[in-house]
Amino acid sequence: MRQLAYDPLDPIVRQDPYPYYAVLRREAPVHEVPGLGIWAVSRHADVLTVLRDHERFSSAAMAAVVRRPAAYAPAGNEEGAPDPMAAAIIGADPPAHTRLRTIVSRAFTPRRIAELEPRIREIARGLVARFAAAGECDVVGDYGVELPIAVIAALLGIDPDRHRDFKRWSDALMHAVFDTPAPEELEEIGQTLEEVNAYVEEVIAARHARPADDLIGTLVRAESLDGALSADEVKIFVFTLLVAGNVTTTHLIANATLALLAHPDELARVQHAPQLIPPMIEEALRYDAPVQFLFRTATSDVDLAGVTIPQGAMVAPLFASANRDERVFADPDRFDVTRNPKDHLAFGHGLHFCLGAALARLEARVAFEELLPRLGSPTRVDDQLTWTNALTMRGPTALRLRFQPTSDRRPTPLCSRDPESVVRRFIEAWSRLDAAELAAYFTEDGTYHNVPLAPVRGRASIEAMIRAFTSSWTETRWDIVTLLSSGDVVVAERIDRTRAGDRGVDLPIVGVFELERGRIKAWRDYFNLSTYTEAMA
To answer: Sign of the C-alpha dihedral, residues 470, 474, 475, 476?
Structure first.
């Protein structure tokens, strides 16, 4: 450890912490960082122990961190910040955490997240269109920052005109939470805190007066329930989302892009087979996590990996080190887009598993589905990168690329007037797992109905639904058994052979297709849902 002394504040460590993590795992899996009073936990099994045991490893340390901005409220106007003692979900232990998570989860249902996909795709396509023809962009400033800001604003129901304010507020809160602001910065941070607090109060009042089905509207409606969120708790959650919902996704997009550029063979695989984008994102989360660690507080003396952590100590479970643990991941320093790791800890684990994980995955998937087809032979402009100063985060502050501009190469179906030919091509197209291609077979107001479930209407919603339920699939092949047609109605009996990692199912299905001018007007699939769920769970 003398040659590789781990210090998360050291700029050299921040450039590439992974060799230091490897030494920690090998020589000092529980290590007190000199001068910082932080105990770094680096092995996967030990990190899991810390995250699972909230009685011995409290989230009180995170509560203290997220309350830091309140200290910068303008003197004499402490009301310009939320009550610093109000509970924050990231810094709460049960039973307070259980109550907060139950309430806030109402705003993060799978249906609400899935319904965001058309809007996320619209935002991503618009951003890519701004720079695609130029052959040069900053993946961070032009894309990775802009996309999550717009998505979080849409989730909160915020006027798009305030997006620039959102970015400014997010940067100020990040600086206050994870850095040590200089004395000359304190006044500006305090004024920013006052500004965002006043704005959120206005939105809360507006949702009381006129209910809306956005995130703040959902949380405000929850306030009428016994034990529900207080106004300060709503504000603190929004503040947390401004930080966690923006910068982490920015770093995920940037870090994944860096990994692809450093591994051109893997980039080529993903560009050739876009169904590899979801497992690529999981591998990027494992390989270079946006959140490197968070904090816990030892509630008593704790023996871990042969080391006694004293009561009251601040403990840092190193997610990023655990994700490179050779005891869990074969050849952990290799970036492999087909690995599809299931045990990475980029989103944490247990009670505090990231509430926004599904949204982050959705944003990243859409981001790369829209970006990668437009990048021909991308290369980095700058050899040296500057990394974020936020203590627990990792991501470049800029990532400038040059590339050969390409047209949007996503295929669209050739619309034959022969209904049987259209259905045969549609069924064959499923092997490519390209939701945009599949949705293009439908009329604009088409219907897709997996009969045990509710129907989905509209091409954009059909594309979002296909992406959602195929997100874990690694391959599928649909074999036609019988195909019958009468006019514009086609009945296809088939076997859908689908795999998701080591799970798989051969599912008998009868599909009924109604066509209109060469496109699918309605598609109904009849099958045994329990057969699918039992095999793929």
So the answer is: negative
Confirm whether pTM is higher than 0.70.
Answer: yes
Residue 363, H or E segment: helix 357-371
**Band (251; pLDDT cuts 50, 70, 90):** very high
Are the C-beta atoms of residues 66 and 88 closer than 8 Å to each other?
A: yes
Map out the domains of the chain as residue ranges.
Answer: 11-404, 419-536
Helix axes 117-131, 146-156, angle to 10 degrees: 150
pLDDT of residue 254: 98
Where are the strands (E) in 391-534, listed by range?
A: 400-405, 442-450, 456-457, 475-486, 489-500, 503-516, 519-526
Mean pLDDT of 257-281: 93
What's the farthest any 2 CA atoms get from each other in the chain?
79
Residue corresponding to tokens 């390409």: 406
Considering only CA atoms, which of 328, 325, 332, 344 is closest in space to residue 279? 344
Distances (CA, A) of 235 to 27, 70, 198, 204, 415: 43, 12, 10, 9, 51
Encode pLDDT of 376-423 as tens digits: 999 999 989 999 888 899 999 999 999 998 876 554 444 446 788 889
Q: Shortest CA distance to 197 belongs to which of 169, 216, 159, 178?
A: 169
DSSP string covering 157-179? T--GGGHHHHHHHHHHHHHHHHS
Quick: pLDDT tens for 290-347.
999 999 999 999 999 999 999 999 999 999 999 999 999 999 999 999 998 989 999 9
Q: What is the DSSP letter of 293?
A: B
Q: Which CATH architecture has domain 419-536?
A: Roll (3.10)
Q: Which residue has the tokens 């897709």?
A: 448
Instruction: Please give the CATH architecture assigned to the domain spanning 11-404.
Output: Orthogonal Bundle (1.10)
Contact 351, 100 (CB under 8 A): no
pLDDT tens digits, one per residue of 47-65 = 999 999 999 999 988 877 7
> Catalytic positions, please?
448, 450, 494, 496, 525
